[in-house]
Structure formats: structure tokens, C-alpha cells
Amino acid sequence: MSQEPLGSYGHDRASSNEPTFGRPLAPDRLGSEAGAAGPADTVGGPTPPASSSVDHGSGGRRSGRSLVAVIAGSCFIIIGLAALVARIVFVRWGILYGTSAVSHVDAIVGALIAIGVALIAWGWKGASGKSVADGDANHGQPWTGWVSGVTALVAAGALVVSLMNLLEPLNPPRLATSACPGARDSSVPYVGITSGLEGDNSRLGPARSYPANGRFPAGCSIGFSVYCLGDPILDETGSTSDETWVTSRWLLVAKQPGGWRSDTARILSGENPERQFVSDAFVTPETAYDQLPLGGAPQCPGAFPYPGKTSLQPFDAQADTFTATASHATNMGLAVWVPPQQGFLNSNAYLQIFTPGAGPANNPGEAAPNGSKSVEWDYKDTLLSQFEPTAGNGGSRSGHVVILAVACLADNIPAFTSTAFIVGYVSSKTGPPTATTDIPNGLDKDRLARAACEAST
Q1: How far is 188 from 449, CA to CA, in rounded Å?
Q2: SS3 for 28-49, per residue?
Q3: pLDDT at 106
Q4: 370: domain range?
Q5: Cβ contact 220:252 at 8 Å
Q6: Is pLDDT above 50 for 81?
Q7: Domain check: are 203 and 285 in the same one?
């Protein structure tokens, strides 16, 4: 038996269906074998490369995640815009107030919109096929790209917060100070600044007999809804060595009406639902105080009546005084109007009847317990000295003036002008003033009443 060469053996094995080892296929055989159909190929056709199947599934999942991101981002932006509108409305209505509360809401609104923008941007990028799994598309992205993205999001949030404060600022530009903690200063008829040395107490009613239920720091703003009459409190700001003024006005801190607005203000801003009264003696006006209305019975507990109509006795030429009385008056003020064309240098002047150096007993201010007050009128120095050198009334050296007496709720705040007493007087160099029923035209009663109650500080 002869031995066959090794090459012949290899050739016989290669000619069979057994695999070959160590020898590359010829180009024609490579193409023939690569295209040959095996058992699996004959059923479903050629099997696609494994990498093609994986890439197709990854793209589908990526597209789904992108859609979810865009939808979630849109929801964030919608919620953020709704919160932005609510923030503006709530601040305007006085439901949301306080630096801390408003700042937190501003941050939430800015974050919601920034997150929404980021999610939408990420979703659009994924939908375009640029995913982290796609080769080296993001592998070589410089860190500056991430910094730019974060900077853009922060800028978007800051822009939203700035726009909110531009449209509805927390502190109205017309006010000198920010609001006190637990108080609002928007959508209110009157705003005042706390002027107590250590701040202002609030009480449950308009009198010191009511319990204290809060305290506001000094030098901040409080919004008030109405005023009520109560215990008279010495007003040290308006009082001097010549005048003593008390105030019977107690100011009610503005609150939201009961219901959802009150509940929302309590949750968001920590609003105290109790009534809080602050004495006007410890409040400096920041807006026009005559815009604050008098509260009704539901708002003003206690029985503190409004001053009655004022009566004025004829001028006492011996003592040079007027005496005025009004029931329930805590202060009394008097003033004189010098009409035009009456021969006086200070034509059309509205002047308080006040004598420097006469002391509180003889000047406008605090009334006696029965509501009466005597005020000295130095008409010779304050009126007769104002006659023109050449009188325009034919040289008679006399002229008409108007006297007004009115109860004052506080310094600078007269009672209703309808309660005032008005009378005309003829002033002459030949004798003391005498009463007359003649009232010249052009009198501004409200202005003269304010002059009667003005503080000399």
C-alpha cells in the first residue's frame, strides 16, 4: 500500500464538504461561498448583519425618547407660563407679597421655563439622529458646548424673572420703602411707613384695651384698607411746644376677603387672617391719606362715634379768642381765608389761626373732654398788618375774611367738611372784627379745613 502525498490528502479533504484550515479561499471561491445559500438562508433570505439590526432598534428607541422629551418640555413651559401669569395677577391683587415669597415663586417660574426649553432642545437633537450612541458625534464635543448651553438656560430663567418684575414689580416704584413682613402695599387705598422707635404694634381692635396680635418693624410700608375711630393717642410727630395733637384714627391692615383669596394669601404669603389695627400716631403717610375711607360697623368694633357738627361762639374781643365745640371731638382746628380783592397783601391765603409762643392751651390741637377748644387770634399782627399801603377798597381799611372751625381726627386730617362751622368777619383798623353773613365767592372749604388742622412741624 503506497502512501499518498500530504498535498494530495489535503486536496481530497478540500474537495469534500469538510472545512479547510490554514488556506485562504481563492477570490472566485470566496464569492461563491459567500453567496451560497445555507439551510437558514433558504427560508427567510439572507440574514442581515447583526450591526444593522441593533442600529435600527436603537434609532426607534431614540425617536421615542425624543418625543417624550419634547412633550414633557412643552408641559413644563405651559405650567411655567401659567405660573408666570398667576404670579403677576396675584402680586397685583395683593395675594402674593413679601420679598421671600415672591422670590421663591420667581425662581420656580424661571426654573420651569428653563427646564422646558432644555427638554425640548434635547428632544429635537435626539430626533435629528444625533445621539450619544451614534459613533463619535458627541464624543469629541468640547466642554464649551455644555457651558454655552447652561449659560443660555440660566439667561432664559433670568430673563423670565426680569420680565415679571418689570410687568409687576414687588416694590411699587412710587413707594419709598419695601413692605413690612406680613403686610402688602399694592392694591390698597393708603400706604404708610411705620414710625415707632421699635416698630409698631397691631391690636385686634382700635383701642389699647384690645390685645396685641402682631408687630411690624420700623421703617417699612404697610397697606391699609379703612380707618376706624378709637382711643386717642398722642401724636409726638405733629406735636410741638405750641401745639398738642392726638389721633383717634386707627388704621386697619389690608387683608384679602374671606374664601380662596384669603386661603391662598395665607399659604403663599403667610397673611394673618385676624384684624390688625395700627394707631395712626405711629404711621407716616406715604400716599394720600385722605383716600382712606372710614370703615363701617363690620370692620370697626367698639362704639367710638364720629365728631358731631361744630359750633363757634362769637369772637371774644377782650381775650382775642374763638371758642369752638363739637361732640366727640378729640382735636379742634380753626383757620381764616383772606379772599381776593379785599385790600390785603396776602390775597387768597388759607391760614391756620395760630399764635407762636401762646402754648398748646391757646392754639389748635387737643380739645377738652367735652370737645371744646379756645384758640387765640392775633388778628392785629396776622391780618391788619397785611392791608395794602393804598387800599383798593377806597381807603376804608376794612375787608372781609372767612373763619372756619372744624373737629380734627388727627393733625392734618379734618373731620368731614359738612361738620365744619363757617362764618364771615369784617376786619377793620377802627375796631375788632365783627361777624357778617356775607361770604365772598371762591372759598375752597376742603382746603380751609386742612389748614385748620395742619401741624406746625
Answers
A1: 25
A2: HHHHHHHHCCCCCHHHHCCCCC
A3: 79
A4: 311-452
A5: no
A6: yes
A7: yes
Between residues 153 and 412, which one has the greater pLDDT? 412
99-127 and 50-93 helices cross at what angle (nearest 10)? Answer: 160
Q: Are residues 331 and 399 in the same domain?
A: yes
Which amino acid, residue 198? Answer: E
pTM assigned to the model: 0.71
**Partner residues linked to 216 by β-bridges:** 200
Quickly state the pLDDT bin for 331 (edges 50, 70, 90). Answer: very high
For 244, residues 6+ apart whose C-beta sits below 8 A from its C-beta are 234, 360, 365, 366
For the stretch 109-127, pLDDT in tens is 878 888 888 888 777 776 6
Are residues 65 and 160 part of one domain? yes
Distance (Å) of CA 291 to CA 113, 227, 279, 280, 285: 41, 10, 17, 14, 11
pLDDT at 30: 38
Q: Are residues 331 and 425 in the same domain?
A: yes
Are 426 and 399 in contact by the 8 Å Cβ rule? The answer is yes
Assigned C-alpha cell, 145 = 458646548
- Average pLDDT on 177-182 reads 87
C-beta of residue 66 within 8 angstroms of C-beta of residue 233:
no
d(C-alpha 178, C-alpha 271), whole Å:
16
Buried b (16+ CB within 10 A) or exposed e, 301-335: beebeebeebebeebeeeebbbbbbbebbbbbbbb
Radius of gyration, CA atoms only, the chain: 44
Alpha-carbon gap, residue 313 to 446, rounded angstroms: 22
Asked which of 291, 323, 347 is the last residue of a domain, the reply is: 291
Cα gap 144→87, rounded to integer Å: 35
Say what the pLDDT of residue 396 is. Answer: 55
Q: Are 412 and 331 in contact (CB under 8 A)?
A: no
Cell of 361: 392751651
